[in-house]
């Protein structure tokens, strides 16, 4: 009987870590309506900073920890004031979620540049000799974790329930418009909430560092897990954050102990999907909490830029001619650039699907790499293990992705905003776990090798040049097909749903059908991209199609321009070619990707393509106005 109790105690200690992070998520969400994925990065940065101050500068561990927590809190408040507060009234909650994902990537990249990829671990606060309580072995640091989470919960409750500042924060959370009319400075309250949440995350990082080895990319795991815990318990409820974190810890530890780490993750994701399906507001959510998708209704989505049809066709023709002629302009020494262009085109195919779903239908998707993994592994496995022709294998992989998308669409049909983003994120993480765990099919962490070149009948695309023209042809066919579809009733329905789902339903539009249709197309294009990815590299491993790729695809779309179909090509080219051209600065790639995503949301809301199109239309408008004035003057003189 002691083994289950030992597992339960271990799960509660791990769950306390998740609960503390979920509490910081919940505090920010309750005041501002924002889910800040950068919380996990604050946790890791604080722990790594404490290690450096303690080990390199000789400070005592308590002083080093206090300095790290204080510095990280200031960093969180600064980011909140300079970035997040500016976005509150300009972006929907889904887009702010992606913005915070960019901040998380930026901070992870900065941590990689400063501390490298090796893990770090602080010394335990009171030794590492386990305490024996009635046969249960307890690590002393676990008691520190429980103590800190208890103090943090009590402190937050006292702040909100017993102080005037807490009453002000509750007013901001309950009715921001009324609070503004009462003279409350919402900006200052938001900055305070971001700073306090960063403090909670930083404190959690310092406390957990002695029992968990932390490195730069641990931030993603912390953020995602805390987000899931808050959602399971109930967004905006402190009790829900605690319960959700503890529940995840116990379930995860039990799954690892009795099954495996892969099945532990599967059980966690299954629990999340069950909650999202049957109780989407969370287990302990009350009717007093603010709706998670409120910002979707009151904030404008990133604008779509339309250029005149004639100019669009002219630009398309020029672009097509340039892409066809580009390989002929490259010298033999630049042949490696062709492979980079092929990768750019393959990723752009996936971004096209993402644009249809996010840019036109307004539905968030943080799991596109999961569909790329399904397409890549399915087609590669069929081709290598059963000798299926690459074309047939790729077609079967796209069909598998279609079925998975339909099942996921049925589960998430009622979801929108943050909940839909979390569901797709969970799906991507589940696929990633399967890619690592199903070693007989995927090769596990080592990857699947020996994937043949793509071929149609007897014609093999076994050179980079032939693969380049294949990808260009597929992109052209997709763009022409989708351009026509988006000018039909299908496109008008998607844009109506994107603007206001309730109004679209009132107009007689079958909202669930069109959302599912767009999601399926997005998934199938992701699978197509993943299959070509595997055939091009002749190899596929989990780290090639993990969550970081999903965030990179979103960054490509945002940087290029949502709702444009072709805009994503600019983002894909920038984020794929630039790291290769600037190879000496490769270690800054992650940090640059995060910075580009953040700056694009703040200063290029329509993306590179949209900004160029707007500039061209303004210039054309000035020319027309000038020509009209000249004609008017000429008529007056006559």
Automatic annotation (TrEMBL):
Gene Ontology terms, MF aspect: branched-chain amino acid transmembrane transporter activity
InterPro entries membership: ABC_transp_permease (IPR001851), LivM-like (IPR043428)
Name under which the protein is recorded: Branched-chain amino acid transport system / permease component family protein
Membrane topology annotation: Multi-pass membrane protein
Localisation: Cell membrane
Species this chain originates from: Paraburkholderia fungorum
Keyword Cell membrane appears in the UniProt entry: yes
Residues that span the membrane, as ranges: 6-27, 34-53, 59-84, 96-118, 138-160, 190-212, 224-249, 256-278, 311-330, 337-361, 381-411, 418-438, 467-486, 516-535, 547-574, 586-604
GO cellular component: plasma membrane
Keyword terms of this UniProt record: Cell membrane, Membrane, Transmembrane, Transmembrane helix
Domain of life according to the entry: Bacteria
CDD domains xref list: TM_PBP1_LivH_like, TM_PBP1_LivM_like
């Amino acid at each position: 009987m002691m083994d289950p109790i030992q597992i339960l105690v271990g799960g509660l200690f791990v769950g306390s870590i998740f609960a503390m992070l979920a509490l910081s998520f919940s505090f920010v969400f309750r005041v501002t309506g924002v889910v800040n994925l950068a919380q996990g990065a604050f946790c890791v940065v604080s722990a790594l900073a404490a290690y450096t101050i303690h080990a390199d500068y000789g400070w005592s561990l308590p002083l080093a920890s206090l300095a790290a927590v204080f510095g990280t809190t200031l960093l969180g408040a600064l980011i909140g004031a300079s970035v997040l507060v500016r976005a509150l009234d300009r972006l929907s909650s889904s887009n702010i979620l992606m913005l915070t994902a960019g901040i998380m990537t930026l901070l992870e990249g900065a941590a990689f540049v400063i501390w490298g990829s090796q893990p770090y671990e602080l010394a335990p606060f009171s030794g590492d000799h386990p305490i024996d309580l009635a046969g249960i072995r307890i690590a002393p640091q676990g008691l520190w974790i429980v103590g800190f989470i208890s103090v943090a919960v009590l402190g937050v409750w006292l702040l909100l329930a017993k102080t005037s500042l807490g009453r002000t924060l509750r007013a901001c959370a309950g009715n921001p418009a009324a609070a503004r009319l009462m003279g409350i400075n919402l900006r200052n309250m938001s900055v305070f909430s971001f700073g306090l949440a960063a403090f909670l995350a930083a404190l959690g990082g310092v406390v957990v560092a002695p029992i968990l080895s932390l490195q730069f990319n641990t931030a993603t795991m912390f953020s995602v897990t805390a987000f899931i815990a808050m959602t399971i318990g109930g967004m905006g409820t402190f009790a829900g954050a605690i319960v959700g974190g503890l529940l995840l810890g116990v379930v995860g530890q039990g799954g690892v102990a009795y099954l495996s780490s892969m099945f532990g993750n599967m059980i966690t994701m299954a629990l999340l999907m069950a909650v999202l399906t049957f109780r989407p507001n969370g287990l302990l959510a009350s009717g007093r909490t603010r709706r998670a998708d409120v910002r979707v209704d009151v904030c404008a989505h990133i604008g779509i830029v339309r250029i005149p049809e004639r100019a669009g066709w002219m630009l398309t023709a020029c672009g097509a001619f340039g892409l066809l002629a580009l390989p002929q302009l490259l010298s033999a020494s630049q042949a490696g650039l062709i492979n980079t262009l092929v990768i750019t085109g393959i990723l752009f195919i996936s971004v096209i699907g993402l644009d249809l779903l996010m840019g036109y239908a307004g539905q968030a998707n943080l799991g596109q790499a999961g569909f790329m993994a399904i397409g890549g592994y399915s087609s590669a496995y069929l081709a290598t293990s059963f000798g299926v022709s690459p074309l047939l294998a790729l077609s079967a992989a796209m069909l598998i992705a279609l079925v998975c998308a339909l099942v996921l669409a049925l589960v998430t049909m009622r979801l929108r905003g943050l909940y839909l983003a979390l569901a797709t994120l969970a799906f991507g993480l589940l696929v990633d776990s399967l890619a690592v765990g199903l070693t007989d099919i995927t090769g596990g962490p080592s990857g699947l090798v020996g994937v043949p070149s793509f071929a149609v009948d007897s014609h093999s695309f076994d050179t980079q040049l032939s693969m380049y023209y294949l990808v260009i042809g597929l992109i052209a066919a997709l763009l022409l097909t989708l351009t026509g579809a988006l000018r039909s009733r299908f496109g008008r329905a998607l844009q109506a749903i994107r603007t206001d789902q309730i109004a679209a339903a009132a107009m007689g539009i079958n909202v669930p059908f069109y959302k599912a249709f767009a999601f399926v197309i997005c998934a199938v294009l992701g699978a197509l991209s993943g299959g070509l990815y595997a055939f091009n590299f002749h190899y596929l491993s989990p780290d090639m199609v993990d969550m970081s790729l999903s965030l990179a695809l979103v960054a490509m779309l945002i940087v290029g321009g949502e709702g444009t179909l072709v805009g994503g090509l600019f983002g894909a080219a920038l984020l794929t070619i630039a790291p290769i051209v600037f190879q000496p600065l490769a270690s800054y790639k992650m940090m640059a990707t995060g910075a580009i995503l953040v700056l694009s949301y703040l200063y290029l809301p329509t993306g590179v393509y949209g900004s160029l199109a707007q500039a061209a239309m303004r210039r054309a408008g000035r020319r027309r106005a000038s020509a009209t004035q000249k004609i008017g003057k000429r008529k007056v003189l006559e």
